[in-house]
Amino acid sequence: MIEVQRVSKSFVSKDIGTVTALKTVDLTIGDNEFFTLLGPSGCGKTTLLRLIGGFEMPTTGMIRIDGVDVAALPPQKRPVNTVFQSYALFPHMTVGENVAFGLRMLGRPAQEIAAQVAAALEMVRLGGFANRRPAQLSGGQQQRVALARALVPKPSVLLLDEPLSALDLKLRKEMQGELKRLQRETGITFVLVTHDQEEALAMSDRIAVLHDGSMLQVGRPAEIYHDPSCRFVADFIGEANLIPGPVLGRRSELTIAVRPERVVLGAGYGRPSGRAKGRVAAVTFLGLDTLYEIELAGHGPIRARIRGDEDGFSRGDSVVVDWAADAERELLH
Predict the structure, then answer these.
(1) N or C terminus: which one in the chain shows less Cβ crowding within 10 Å?
(2) What is the per-residue pLDDT for 84?
(3) Average pLDDT score over residue span 292-298
(4) What are the distances in angstroms from CA 227 to CA 213, 248, 259?
(5) What is the pTM of this model?
């Protein structure tokens, strides 16, 4: 559905000269795919989204949507709609009028508009809200109206620019499920921008991790989590213990990445096996899991996440740290 070929974007600033927001990127996003652009602030993910949507023009490269070169087309000429972080609802219009706005701009007949608006509001579970104003709605309800308005013209691609960041944690979790449901039901390609790793892992078919204007890794959530391509990805996606190679007898240019849930703890220094010895520095009970912070000799802390271990080790206990061979990834610096 989307092909990005050798695309870059630079801006000229009076204060600091030319700034490269996005280095040369190649990317293919499939039809009916929930794809996420993930990375910290300033990594280039929003710039790439805006380039796909037509809000910015690329400095170099080509963008195709459904086989058509759109790099020079304005947003209204592309088969794309966007849901912004701010929702951007018209406060003087009712919910129904907000959802109908795009269809009216397209010149659709009134009867068709009424039917499609009703169907769109049912789809986002706001069937009885057509006559309310945005100010009468909660944040989650306003987000659903923005989604209905963007989906009702049936675009080929829906762009989502951090749409859940203004919601509280419980509502954000609920809306993650709603977005995934809507994507499955409509069959539209969704492209989400977020800095929330958990959100990306929970919702996406595939994820692209960006950093400093470059795309570091593209893959399914499990691939990126279990097999990170570099130190940054390992550290940014979930939790990871990053251990210098020499601590474990490896080459100096290597970093060993091990997820906390793969770390095993044994009691005392007398245990015959184990990769390192340490002492429990902190214990945090998290409900289903207990998080241990272990101070290793010759290295800083390493974290172990143990399922259902609230009655396990205590602060100050001596422990042996171990993990299975397939739990570690060797990463170059």
Answers:
(1) C
(2) 84
(3) 86
(4) 22, 20, 11
(5) 0.86
